[in-house]
Mannose-6-phosphate isomerase (Fictibacillus barbaricus), 319 residues
Amino acid sequence: MYNEPLFLKPVFKDRIWGGTKLHDEFGYKIPTETTGECWGISAHAHGPSEVVNGKLKGKTLDQVWDEHRELFAGQEGEEFPLLVKILDAKTDLSVQVHPDDSYARKVEGEAFGKTECWYVVDCGPEAELVYGHHAKTKLQFGQMVAENRWDELLRKVTIKPGDFVYVPNGTIHAIGAGTMILETQQSSDITYRVYDYDRRDDAGNKRELHIEKSIEVAMIPHEDNNFEPVLSEIDDLKISKLVRENYFTVYHWSLNGTVSKIENPSYLLVSVIDGEGELTVGGETSSTYKKGDHFIVPSSVKRFSMNGHARFIVSHPTL
């Protein structure tokens, strides 16, 4: 039986809107001064994470998924279902939208569309997100886009550290400048850009927009999706269930001391967003963790204990 967590080596992505906070705040060795994304837990073909400990050291997460399905409660499906990122938005991200599973399969030949959610790790005092729009029909939406009436079209909301935002497929959205989020999402890399502020890359080219596809998949009119957190405690661990929906269930954990027994419902995706400590399986096998670590507690670990002072974002596929 595999009785320890799978610690993973992140994959980093250079982005036109990225910066250096992934190094400054998390200590990662980033490849460029415009590193926008840390793919902490990924089996996606565009950047699979590598196991860095134990018997499976050196294997990528997609390989582990294919060869050791017993570590994932025997879950069916050709592809690992979730992807966990940390994003550093030095400048505004493009206004964008993602398709649902059906559209992704039919049009893009991909297994998953993209429903996602964000935990705001840090942001400035006046930080904003684009979340939704004000158009009532597809015709009105298309007209406002064609006429560049962005201030009228886009709906902006203010945010603060610790906020949680659920972004189902079809939601028009954009992360604002100065914001760092942890994103839990379906394992998809499909993005349709609606607006990119007329930015140009180093070669002087504007990035491609996807207006027709965006209008096809966008939620029009926009509808909010709000979830009230469900709070619980186990010993010195405070748990806030942030969302439970069709694809994933996501929690914020805050540990200040010791928790003697955590039950594992299937397999857990864990990202340490602050602090450090130790995780123990069966009272014997221990692993230390620190801020910036990403690991999976496999389904072969039925229960475990933890000690330390730390905060985590934890998720699993919704059963």
